Amino acid sequence: MADEVVTQFKENYVNTRAGKIALVTMDNGFDYKKPNTFGAGGLASLNACLDRIAQEAEVKALVLTGKVFIFAVGADLTQVETIKTSEEAKAVAQMGHAAFKRLMDLPYPTVAAINGATMGGGLEIALACKYRTISSGVTALALPECFIGLIPGWGGTTLLPKLIGPEKALQVIIYNALNNNRMLDGKAAFELGIADRIFEPVDFLDKSIEFAVGLLEGSEKVERPEPDFSGVDALCDAAKGFADSKTHGMAPAPYKAIEIIRKTGSISVDEGFALEDEALGELIISPQCRASVYSFDLVQRRAKRPVGVPEGFPSPVNKIGVLGAGLMGSQLALLFLRRMRVPIVIKDIKQEFVDKGLAYIQGELGKMADKGKLDRNQIPWLFGLVQGTLDYADMADCDFIIEAVLEEMPVKKKVFAELEEAVGENCIFATNTSSLPITEMSSDLRHPERVVGFHFFNPVAVLPLLEIIRGEKTNDQTLVTAFDIARKIGKRAVLCKDRPAFVVNRLLIRMMVVNWDLVDEGNTFQEIDANLIKLGAPMPPFVLLALVGPAVGMHALETLAAAFPERYHVSENLRKLVEMKKPGVYGPDGNVDPEYAAALKVAEPPKKASAQEMIDRVCEAVTEEIDIMLREGVVAGPEEIDLCMIMGAGYPFWNGGITKFLDYSGYSEKVLGRKFHPDK
Amino acid sequence: MTRELNEVYLVDAVRTAFGRAGQKGIFWLTRADDMVVKVIRTLLERNPQVPPERIDDNVWGATTQWGDQGLTMGRTTVVLSGLPVSVPGVSVDRMCAGGMTAACFGASEIAVGAADIVIAGGVEHMGHHPMGEGADPNPRFIAEKLVDTSALNMGMTAENLHDLHPEITKEMCDEYAMLCQQKAKKAYDEGKIQRMIAPMTVWTENGWKVADTDEQPRPNTTMEGLRDLRTPFRVKGRVTAGNSSGLNDGAAGVLLASGRACEELGLKPRMRLVNYAFAGVKPEIMGIGPIPATKKVLERSGMKFDDLDIIELNEAFAVQAIAFMNEFGMKFPDDPRLNKWGGAIAFGHPLASSGCRLMAHLALLFEEDPSAKYGLTTMCVGLGQGGSVIWENVQG
User: Fold this and answer.
1) Across the A/B interface, how many CB contacts are shorter than 8 Å?
2) B-contacting residues of A 25-54, CB under 8 Å?
3) Together in a domain, A493 and A537
4) Confidence at residue B2, expressed as pLDDT on a 0 to 100 scale
5) Which of A18, A255, A349, B19 gets the highest tally of CB atoms within 10 A of its CB?
6) What is the mean pLDDT of chain A?
7) How many domains does chain B have?
8) What amino acid positions of B are annotated as catalytic residues?
9) Is residue B235 part of a domain?
10) What global pTM score does this model have?
């Protein structure tokens, strides 16, 4: 456990025309990159500060604010794993309540001046003040607790509905949190009624102090609409339905928050706080909370410093080539263009393909301008950086070339061989293969050390993951540059060994094999989809298959089946689907395509699996596969597996990606006799 | 095409508190340009009749123009203050008289009809930018004996001034300094100074604090205390920290407008610019600068010294103030016309900001005494200059 970085509460006094005001700063002594958090030490500092202020004569008001750019971002999550029992967990909740309650009970006006990033306990301490001002420069304000397996349990679940009503409180506590932790900006928070005044950042604290003076003088009056609890049950039921759609009942936190919000209109603050204590007592020690904190740490910290990247300085990349102007190639060209703003050459074998790719890029740039994400005046210049060609010679001075041609080994080998004749020997070759081995792809090249795998996830602009694959001969300089490019294009890269289908596809396809087994045995697609969505993926498996495309999915499966015939095999029913060129198992009406249904061949009589059996079989297969992958050294550890599943497959925080879920659900011990993450 | 010159009015003058330079000063972790922004925004808040888009120029002086005082601060602070991008900005430098020069520059723009409304001021964060920081004096200064080595050290120039005026003793300087501190304390106690200060919430090692009071004043100064201070510039010298201004951080600015703009927008001008003059003197005795500058501006204005009812003189050093008093026959040590609320020895002297501080004092002194008709703001400048501006009280 890391030692708590203690946020100190430091008071200074301002003598105003309305009397003495205590100006309290929360500051952990670091710059904005290490935001203020609250642990036991921070709360003790708050108590000591309030003790000192109580000794000071003639204090007329208190203004509470943060350090530069940061108000406070809530409880110190590094402490969560040290809490073992429900009693300890409840004590943490009570300790926060007790400290914030002192602030609530001060007999004079208290103003939280929300000057910067504010989350969780940071917002709760602001809610403990009688008034709030907010800077229009605030970009991140949230109660993210339900996103990480907790509830706002230092007063937020009780105080926010009492302040702004249940509808808006549910928006912040449930909807925003479960929508991938959506943030409010200062203006939105003000409009929701979270703050009483909004001021520009330039002299925000001056204005906030002036507001406190105005309150004392009576020139400032705060009028808030009475919160409307009349529709609270319907609102809470709707929120519960939303939580179901996001968590499938697999994460308890949002439900507990909703049930407290349901009651807030009819209970006292103290009663609300007692309910929060009870809820946190259970949630802090819940596996979903542990897994969420783990996931949060992975995404916030580990993903930013990829494991296994060699030391060194990246080579300059001043021109980029893209082979293949299809949808993937065009998306990649657009991404490099937007993020790196260097000349891009995009090559295909027919002018019409090139033209189509260029038209796509131009169209997307226009759409970005429509959304205000790009200055429209820049488009002619930016698009002018893109050159379409049929000739390798136009790529001669590229520093980095990525191929997005047909997913066939002979095709890939051919284009790389042709490319090598056209370009300099320091040009990096990246392949956007989803399953083909890099080592083999580069085996005939004079400079195989320049080849690296760049496996993006579709849609490229949305999913942050990039699997970077090191072939047997890939050298350090190529890798260092590859990771630098990944950073520049805003992707989170994970280093993978050159093993078939790398990480995400290998695992998703292993699950798919079990799913097709279940189909072959006579379970319906709907049954399988309805049960397996509970594992937390953003969509059910056969909906995902349609998104990927059955042919692409089967192609990758065949690669794996060739490599690992004992665990991967192609169902005849899948083969049939591909042969029939169906876009998926379901038709446009959501029912199984009738032609395909007629062609299905399943066990007779059907061997039906229960919901639990389905989940068990998928989880056991995945447990086995992850263990094999870790022994093969595909990635550095289970953390990288989880990062890939969160960032590339959209797996939820409360599963900890996947290995934490397999641990806390008992699968790893059942299959392997041990956990992926041994208990500390 | 012929044209008439326009009258120029000072509508308002505001400053930050003046802090002590260095790590212990309240502005140590605050940027100079942010202090300028505070002054600009306060001027506009206090004069809401002025539409920001009507500001024709934003003129700022600073002695050191890089880091947080660089990048053409007159322009950067337009953007940082939230003024419309259509407002232009410029930086000027006449060392200590940077703010005074900025005001005169803006006034000249208005006078010739190039502008109607101008914000002008000066700033110096001497904690971030110690005197002479980054300077690379031409070796010819010394090789060709163009100036004495002492010319670049302001304290030494004050000692030189003592040499020139042996009648001005260290005791006289100490007495002058003590009275200055007393006058400043009285003015503070009566709430005079607070009227011109814009309180600014600033980040410090100990959290946010409000800078609303000058850090330099030493109201308990005694002759005994002053007597024993070191004379750092010479052995057995006469210039001490006690009878000099300090090293400070601060910003001060003014809002200037043409008569036409005042009328149109309903602005209540405080004083009218009569004329200004700058004059050069030997760099080794730069403190004498206000004398020729004042003579020059009086002559150009067709006025005599006795026409002036109020004098705001920047006290870089007491010796320089006393030399000025002697030259113009003012009564030592406390001529009632001079620095009624104290001067730079008490408040401090953040170089380029001081010129506009003097204007703030004069504007409020005019308000207190409607019978006072003319006033002077004057100061000396490093490397041997003086600057003097005559103003007419229009708050009758």
Assistant:
1) 47
2) 25, 27
3) no
4) 78
5) B19
6) 96
7) 1
8) 96, 349, 380
9) no
10) 0.93
